[in-house]
C-alpha cells in the first residue's frame, strides 16, 4: 500500500474513532419547578428561600426584613462532570424562567445569574455589584473557578448600562456584555415580566450561546426559543472551572433591591453511560486504534 493511501485510511479511522467516542455520551435530564418545600432536599440554599412556587435567590419577604445589601445562591446539590478524564468536554443546555421583580415600582438592584461554581459556598460581602459571585478581595481571581451568565439591573463603572446580559468569568466585569434595550427587553420593568433564558454550551465547538424571550404567562407553555442568540462567545471551560462543578443561581441586592425569582429550571447534560457500555466503548476504541496501527 502506498504511503498516501495508508495515511488517508489512518485519518479516516481516527475520524471514526473520535466520532464514536463522542456518540457514546448519554444525556441526563432534569426538569425542575414549580418549586415547593420538597426541593429543599435537591437544592442547597444560601440566604435565599423557596416561596410562592419559585426559587427566591435573595429573600422575598418585602416589609418584614431589610432587603438591601444581600447576596444569595441556590445550587443543585449534585455536581456535574464537565469533561471526561480524557479532557473531552461534555455539552449541556440549561433553561429557566425568571422574574426579576421591582417592589412598588421602585428602582431595582442588582442582578441575578446562572452560575457554575466549584463548591456550595458564597463569598462574604458579595452583595451590591458583586451579584453573589465575588467580593472586593476575590473579584477577577482565577481561583474563583466560576463562570456565570448575568442579568444585571444596575450600571457599575465597567457596565454598559443598567439592563444587560453578560458572560462573567471569575469577575463581575463581564467578558461580553449585551445591552437588552435593542431587543426591547427590560429585565425588571414596572409591573411584572417573565423571561425565558436558554444557555447552550457546545463542548465540541467550545462555545456558548444564550437565547432570551419574554413569556407572558408564568404558568403557560414555554415560549419558542428564538433563532438568534442574544449572546454568543467562545468558551473553553476546562481552563476555567472545576471538572466537577455545581450548577445554580446567584443574585444580590444593593442600595436598591429586587426579588430574584426562578420559576422553572431545566438542565440537560451529556455524561458517560453506565460502566458496561463504557467498557464496550473502550474495547471498540482500542480495536479501532489497533486497526490504525495495522495500517501504519
Ligand atoms: C412539590 O413539587 C413536587 C414536584 O413538582 C410534587 O411532586 C409534589 O407533589 C409537590 N408537593 C407539594 C406539597 O405540593
Ligand atoms: C435597611 O438598612 C439600611 C442600612 O442599615 C438602612 O439605611 C435602611 O433604612 C434600612 N431599610 C429599611 C426598610 O429598614
Ligand atoms: C442542546 O440544544 C441543542 C439545540 O436544540 C441540541 O442540538 C443539543 O443536542 C442539546 N444538547 C444537550 C446536551 O441536550
Ligand atoms: C423543561 O423541559 C420540559 C420537557 O421537555 C418542557 O416541557 C419545558 O417547557 C421545559 N422548561 C423550561 C423552563 O425550559
Ligand atoms: C415606574 O413606576 C414609578 C412609580 O409609579 C414611576 O415613577 C416611574 O416613572 C415608572 N417608570 C417607568 C419606566 O414607567
Ligand atoms: C471575600 O470572600 C473570601 C471567601 O470567599 C473571604 O476570605 C474574604 O474575606 C472576603 N472578602 C471580603 C472583603 O469580605
Ligand atoms: C469554594 O470556592 C471558592 C472559589 O470559588 C474558594 O475561594 C473557597 O475557598 C472554596 N470553599 C471551600 C469550602 O472549598
Ligand atoms: C473590565 O474589563 C475590561 C477588559 O475586559 C478592562 O478593559 C476594564 O479596565 C475593566 N474595568 C474595570 C473597572 O475593572
Ligand atoms: C449598602 O452597602 C454599601 C456599600 O457597602 C453602603 O455604602 C450602603 O450604606 C449600604 N446601604 C444599605 C441600605 O444598607
TrEMBL record:
- Tell me, what's a Pfam family for it? Lectin_legB
Q: Could you say which residues form the signal peptide?
A: 1-21
Which Gene3D superfamilies does this entry report, sorted A to Z?
2.60.120.200
Q: Please tell me whether the keyword Cytoplasm is annotated for this protein.
A: no
- Protein keywords: Lectin, Signal
UniProt keyword annotation of Zinc-finger present: no
Tell me which residues make up the Legume lectin domain: 48-273
UniProt lists the family membership as follows: Belongs to the leguminous lectin family.
State the name under which the record lists this protein.
Legume lectin domain-containing protein
Q: Report the source organism.
A: Stylosanthes scabra
